[in-house]
Design a protein that fits this description.
By secondary structure, the chain is mainly alpha-helical. It is built from 16 helices and no strands. The chain has one domain: Orthogonal Bundle (ABC transporter involved in vitamin B12 uptake, BtuC), CATH 1.10.3470. The model has no long low-confidence stretch (mean pLDDT 83). InterPro entries: ABC_BtuC-like, ABC_transptr_permease_BtuC.
């Protein structure tokens, strides 16, 4: 094949200059840093920069503000970063590997699969440690992925984008209903497990981060290596195979990566939806069609959006708070409608 063909696969059609994309990514990193600062300082108990510095350099265990920073807000923010990165990468990979602009870990049923397996392990099998039920999360995410793809594959056309979206919606509805049914059978645990129906960063401590971050970190590294393969798939299976790409193996590996990322993210903060659907589209608008840039843009932008939603949930009903999954549902739906309204869905 010609050099032009191979460069098209590597960069994607219509790729933008690398220098400008690198500057844009650096700006997003700065935005994420600012959001992290506000995530630590804003809430029912406001704290200033001086208190933050003292909490790390001269910690006073008798100070309620410093304890809140170290024990609650810092782990909450870090979990938001890791989970957001996982969900953003998962959404971008799913949209690329299925060539479906509506693909998302929530809509495709992957988060719901992880959640129902976690709830089953806790309520039925008595699992107590996140180190135990994170494995059930992986199994649930993998089960949902296989189920959606198998259902969508029925028929002459195979797993088309529309059939994948419909199959994902159906599987999500079924699994969410099962989760609700299991939780409702134990009224004493209802408040504790309500989290598994919507998703939240509240009450997530360093123990959760320690158990899930290594899996997410491995998934992130694997995900960032898939950009070239996703660019090839964007050109169509036939051309990708002609250029030497093993399409079926690539798809299997990408679904495995998505299962790892979504399983760990769901174990960390519950089944959060919409953010993995909308943010990759925004990333594509910012950096163009090259998945080698869409993936890192999504990885940085999604945690920022997730933490902003978490901050809003803490501030609007203070001293109480709205779960981040609720806030994202309220904000994500009109945001996606706006994207569809002002931009051709096929171009997203």
């Amino acid at each position: 094949m010609s050099v032009i063909d191979r460069s098209t696969v590597e960069a994607g059609p219509g790729a933008r200059p690398t220098a400008g994309l690198a500057v844009g990514l650096a700006i997003l990193v700065g935005v994420l840093a600012v959001v992290c600062f506000f995530s630590i300082t804003l809430g029912a108990r406001g704290v200033g920069p001086t208190t933050i510095v003292k909490a790390f350099l001269d910690f006073d265990p008798n100070s309620a503000s410093e304890t809140v920073i170290r024990e609650i807000r810092v782990p909450r923010t870090l979990i938001g970063i890791f989970a957001g990165a996982a969900l953003g990468l998962s959404g971008a990979i799913l949209q690329g590997v299925t060539r479906n602009p509506l693909a998302d870990p929530g809509i495709m049923g992957i988060n719901a699969g992880a959640a129902v397996f976690i709830v089953f392990s806790i309520m039925v099998l008595g699992a107590q440690s996140i180190g135990v039920y994170v494995w059930f999360a992986f199994a649930g995410a993998a089960f949902a992925t296989v189920a959606v793809y198998a259902i969508a594959s029925f028929g002459r056309e195979g797993a088309t984008p529309i059939k994948l979206a419909l199959a994902g919606a159906a599987v999500t509805a079924v699994l969410t209903s099962i989760t609700s049914g299991i939780v409702m059978t134990n009224i004493d645990a209802l408040n504790e497990l309500r989290f598994w129906q919507v998703g939240s960063l509240a009450g997530r401590y360093f123990s959760v981060l320690e158990q899930t971050a290594p899996f997410i970190a491995v998934g992130i590294v694997m995900a960032l290596t898939t950009g070239r393969a996703l660019n090839g798939l964007a050109l169509g299976d036939d051309l990708a195979e002609a250029l030497g790409q093993r399409v079926r193996l690539s798809r299997i590996m990408m679904f495995v990566i998505v299962a790892i990322l979504c399983g760990a993210a769901t174990a960390a903060c519950g089944p959060i939806v919409f953010v993995g659907l909308v943010v990759p589209h925004v990333a594509r608008m910012l950096c163009g069609p090259d998945y080698r840039w869409i993936l890192p843009y999504s990885m940085i932008l999604t945690p920022a959006v997730l933490l902003i939603a978490d901050i809003i949930g803490r501030v609007v009903v203070s001293p109480g708070e709205l779960q981040v999954g609720v806030v994202l549902g309220v904000l994500g739906a009109p945001a996606f409608i706006a994207l569809v309204r002002y931009r051709n869905l096929a171009e997203l």
